[in-house]
Design goal:
alpha/beta; Aminopeptidase; six-stranded antiparallel beta sheet; Aminopeptidase i, Domain 2; nine-stranded mixed beta sheet; 2 domains; globular; 12 helices; about 475 residues
Length: about 475
């Protein structure tokens, strides 16, 4: 007679336990997770800025059979790009658009360092060419010192010509650096200060060049090092110093995304907050086989600085896109219909969460934290303190999403952003919720979020893709 363990049976039946993907997944699913990560790494290497990300997807959309909504499209696969920095991608469903859409919104900007509008300067003391910078988003300034950097972006000339720039990614290209202070002389300047004050914004200058322009008959050329830099830029790109004033130039890590860990189960790379969600949600909408409700992927800019501006999630862009979808689908598209459409909609705010860092576990509460490799996280609320600045999803919608994930075999977990009163952060969720839609945060965990090289799990990457696909097809 087989002996039963009643307590163990009850524990399995009654308790919640997150599942380690690698233990729970089939051999076939594990292979899919590893395979899925290969193109993802290539994507990270190609897309280090908002513009590069949109350009990447624009090329892919044509191959996937999507048509520009502004170019008299036909069919159910539609997209629109705005100002080369954000995009909406839609697959129109069987039901009317006015009954609500299933939308996944992510952001394609990442913490970085921008060049100032008038950046080029010759340091009078050292006679080195310097680029002055202004950081973007929530960075730890000291992390950007003494590491190889690349410059990406565009010069837009007054005649409308756009010149794309990427310097520092190829082996035969130079890289750039913000030199840190040597430890021998750092006792007063850095060691006696708080970590957040040891490197100030004015220390974040890039050494750009060191060779002066030489002219035999003229030994006293003013700012000859700066002049030589301008000559080199003019020869290569046809620009003059005034063109910097209308440029958007972003400083990013020069390294490539790589497999991480001896088992190659993770990905180390820049900009995974939040391009990991952009990549997984876009691939999910490309692969949906049937959807009753209209599915939309919204790739937004400017989240790292509060979703501001005309390419951020606070802009009218997504509302305008949905209104035009109503019109395209032969439905009423007045303001009242648009409002009802939004109220009837369901939205996943696809943003990353903070996985427990084994080096700093004390800032998390284990039972309510995200664990790397345990699947996509479902986050009811973010914010800080007493849930300040939070969306705080409704229980009914929370249960619906979890139910879909369970039914579709998605590896998921719940996850909060650290201990209460430890800190906090926000996502696009609260801005989407202002439309009256049901909204919840849903994305993978990262280690080292907002650093130059963030660490993700291939298990969570693949689980996020499956989660967004299930949402589009079943919600």
């Amino acid at each position: 007679m087989k002996k039963t363990n009643k307590a163990e049976d009850l524990r399995k039946k009654l308790t919640y336990k997150r599942k380690n993907f690698w233990e729970a997944a089939s051999e076939q699913e594990v292979k899919k997770a590893f395979d899925f990560a290969e193109d993802y790494k290539a994507f990270l290497n190609l897309c280090k800025t908002d513009r590069e990300t949109i350009s990447y997807f624009e090329k892919l959309l044509a191959k996937k059979g999507f048509a520009d909504l502004d170019n008299n499209p036909q069919g159910k696969k539609i997209f629109r790009i705005s100002r080369k920095k954000n995009a909406a991608i839609a697959v129109i469903g069987k039901r009317p658009v006015k009954e609500g859409v299933n939308l996944v919104v992510s952001h394609i900007d990442s913490p970085r360092v921008d060049l100032k509008q008038n950046p080029l300067h010759e340091d009078g003391t050292t006679q080195l060419g310097i680029l002055k910078t202004h950081y973007y988003g929530g960075i730890k300034k000291y992390q950007w010192m003494s590491t190889p950097l690349a410059i990406h972006g565009v010069f837009v000339k007054q005649n409308g010509e756009t010149i794309s720039v990427s310097i520092g990614e190829e082996e035969d290209e130079p890289v750039f650096v913000m030199p840190d202070l040597l430890p021998h002389l750092a006792r007063k300047e850095q060691y006696t200060k708080k970590i957040g004050e040891a490197v100030a914004a004015h220390h974040m200058n890039i050494v750009f060049n060191s060779v002066p322009f030489l002219e035999k008959e003229n030994k006293e050329i003013k700012e000859a090092v700066k002049l030589n830099a301008l000559i080199l830029l003019n020869e290569k790109y046809g620009i003059i110093e005034e063109d910097f004033l209308s440029a958007e130039l972003e400083v990013v890590p020069a390294g490539k995304a790589r497999d991480a860990g001896i088992d190659k189960s993770m990905v180390l790379g820049y900009g995974q907050d939040d391009r990991i969600c952009a990549y997984t949600s876009a691939n999910a909408i490309f692969d949906i086989s049937a959807n009753d409700k209209t599915a939309i992927v919204y790739l937004a800019d400017k989240e790292e600085i509060g979703s501001e501006g005309n390419t951020g999630a606070k802009s009218i862009f997504i509302l305008d896109f949905i209104a035009d979808l109503l019109k395209y689908n032969g439905e009423a598209y007045d303001s009242a219909t648009l409002r009802k459409t939004l109220i009837n909609s369901q939205i996943l705010s696809a943003d990353v969460n903070a996985a427990i860092n084994p080096n700093f576990p004390s800032v998390h509460e284990n039972e309510n934290a995200v664990h790397l490799g345990f699947g996509v996280s479902v986050t009811k609320f973010t914010g800080a303190g007493g849930k300040s600045g939070s969306n705080d999803a409704n229980a009914e919608f929370n249960a619906k999403i979890i139910g879909i994930f369970n039914a579709e075999g998605v590896n998921w977990q719940i996850g909060a952003l650290g201990k209460v009163d430890e800190g906090g952060g926000g996502t696009i969720a609260k801005y989407m919720a202002e439309y009256g839609a049901e909204v919840i945060d849903c994305g993978p965990g990262l280690l080292g979020m907002h650093s130059l090289y963030e660490l993700s799990s291939k298990a969570d990457l693949y689980s996020s893709y499956k989660a967004y696909k299930a949402f589009f097809e079943k919600a």
